[in-house]
Amino acid sequence: MNFRSTQAIPSNRFRLSPTILIALSDTTVTLTNVRTREQFTASAILAPNTQIRSDWEITAYRYSENLQPFAHPRTPVTNSHAAEMILRSALKDYGLSQFAPTIILRPQPRFLVDITDAELSTLREIALKVGAARVAMYLKPEFSERDWAYFENA
From what superkingdom does this record's organism come (predicted)? Predict the structure, then answer.
């Protein structure tokens, strides 16, 4: 038996981890499986009984700056720790806690035109801390059929 092959094996045939589009908004996080297009919506508001790590975060939490980390009008993320907790919870509720998915992250629509590299880097770091194998940023308001096809085969 010869186990060597001259033909390339399609990478998507053996890939176990899913590709997930995460669309952020002020109050919700929408996860969409790119292959099946099945959607799951989770809250982007921290629960009142959330464990907070530092004194600064406790103070911010009391003044409700920390309750909605994606709702600030001038920056995509106000607190990266809170955003990480929300994304980790959403992935766990969706059933992806044991996989390392490829995450396509789309910031809130108001930031799609003028988001800075530092803000993109912060969002990318949050996705990697949550457990993403790879992170891509999507800076368009809606997915077109061409975009779906591209990410299904990526």
Answer: Bacteria
Report if residue 112 sits inside a domain.
yes
Examine residue 6 and state whether it is found in any structural domain, yes or no: no
Terminal Cα distance for the chain, rounded: 32
Domain harbouring 43, CATH code: 3.30.420.40
| Total domain count, the chain | 1
With vertex at residue 20, the alpha carbon angle to CA 141 and CA 80, rounded to the nearest 5 degrees, is 80
- Three-state SS letters, the chain: CCCCCCCCCCHHHCCCCCEEEEEECCCEEEEEECCCCCEEEEECCCCCCCCCCCHHHHHHHHCCCCCCCCCCCCCCCCCHHHHHHHHHHHHHHHCCCCCCCEEEEECCHHHCCCCCHHHHHHHHHHHHHHCCCEEEECCCCCCCHHHHHHHHHC
Give the side-chain half-sphere CA count within 13 A for 143: 20
- pLDDT tens digit sequence for 46-63: 876 666 555 455 555 555
How far apart are alpha carbons 19 and 34 in whole angstroms?
6
